[in-house]
Write a structure and sequence with these properties.
This protein is of the alpha+beta class. The protein contains three helices and six strands; from the N terminus they run E-E-H-H-E-E-H-E-E. Strand 1 and strand 2 form a beta hairpin. The N terminus is likely disordered.
Length: about 150
């Protein structure tokens, strides 16, 4: 994401946006993931992506954002952009950046059965063409995924 997209944002309904790039803060509140998912769906639809791509991207961003809220420290943000691939197909790029691992995981505070955990990585891998993690010198960690447009 470009340095122009690092402006301070107030809430998940507000995004810093360009024609092919958008960033939202990921607030540590109960409805944060669903709010981000709706924002991603609306933005991709506005950019003209087909419903299948919108649905896949919404699922990937949900998994990445949930992982951050459960296992990482705030502040966090979600980035969405698209580029052209070498084959002249559009590729959706999703990034979720956090402030590093939490001192103690909030995993069990959600009261979900233990078997409900651990599926997110597999879902992201299945839906993305490429994915990865990178850490910055400022202790920020970014998990990203590239999804080809259907």
């Amino acid at each position: 994401m470009s340095s122009a997209t690092t402006a301070k944002l107030v809430g998940t309904d507000q995004a810093l946006s360009t024609s092919s790039e958008c960033i939202w803060p990921l607030l540590p509140v109960s409805d944060a993931v669903s709010a981000i998912r709706r924002q991603v769906q609306a933005r991709l639809a506005a950019w003209g992506f087909p419903p299948e791509t919108v649905d896949d991207a919404a699922l990937v961003v949900s998994e990445l954002a949930t992982n951050v809220l459960v296992h990482a420290r705030p502040p966090a943000d979600v980035g969405l952009s698209w580029t052209w691939s070498e084959g002249r197909r559009r590729v959706v790029h999703i990034e979720v950046t956090d402030s590093g691992p939490a001192l103690r995981s909030r995993r069990h505070s959600h009261r979900l059965p233990i078997e409900e955990y651990g599926r997110g990585t597999g879902i992201v891998a299945a839906l993305s063409a490429r994915r990865g993690t990178r850490a910055s010198s400022a202790a920020r960690v970014t998990r990203w995924a590239d999804l080809p447009a259907v």
